[in-house]
């Protein structure tokens, strides 16, 4: 059986982050795509490269025409902030947006505690501290 060369290409976004890796065995490259392996003989050789990690963060970039691992320090911080925003949405906003009928059942002390909890959630991306939910909130 004859070995065919199936070059592996990387496609990047406008800042050089690799958003796709593929073999010419399955797709025709664009003029802007970059060859990262010109001697590949495995039709599925592109699968050796995971474009994203388990958190959905891109693994590679192209530097001077070469595939390199990305520094994910800033991405990891952004991921943590997004996770806090998601928690705020699911844990806080569903309570805060219950409506006037629910608010009318609260005592002045509960309203004050709810207001403090809400403000702490609004500040969560600055403080990185998840507020403790008042025990009376069901």
Tell me about the biggest sheet? Answer: 3 strands, antiparallel
List SSEs in N-to-C order. EEEEEHHHH
Please state the average pLDDT score. 92
Rg for CA atoms: 24 Å
Quantity of strands, as a count: 5
Query: Counting H and I runs of at least 4 residues, what is the number of helices?
Result: 4
Global shape: rod-shaped
**How far from one another are the termini?**
67 Å
* Class of secondary structure makeup: alpha+beta
Low-pLDDT segments, ≥5 res: none
User: Helicity range of the residues?
Assistant: 25-40%
Taking strands numbered 1, 2, ... along the chain, how are they ordered across the largest sheet? 2-1-3
Q: In percent, how much strand structure appears in the residues?
A: 15-25%
Can you tell me about this structure?
There is one protein chain. This protein is an alpha+beta fold and 138 residues long. 34% of the residues lie in helices and 17% in strands. The chain has four helices and five strands. The protein has a three-stranded antiparallel sheet with strand order 2-1-3, with no helix packed on it. Strand 1 and strand 2 form a beta hairpin. Helix 1 runs antiparallel to helix 3. The N and C termini lie far apart (67 Å). The mean pLDDT is 92.
Notable traits:
138 residues; alpha+beta; 5 strands
Concise account of the structure shown:
The chain is α+β, with helices and mostly antiparallel strands. The chain has helices spanning 73-96, 100-103, 108-122, 124-127, and strands spanning 8-12, 18-23, 34-37, 60-63, 66-69.
SSE arrangement:
Layout: E1 8-12, E2 18-23, E3 34-37, E4 60-63, E5 66-69, H1 73-96, H2 100-103, H3 108-122, H4 124-127
Antiparallel strand pairs: 1-2, 1-3, 4-5
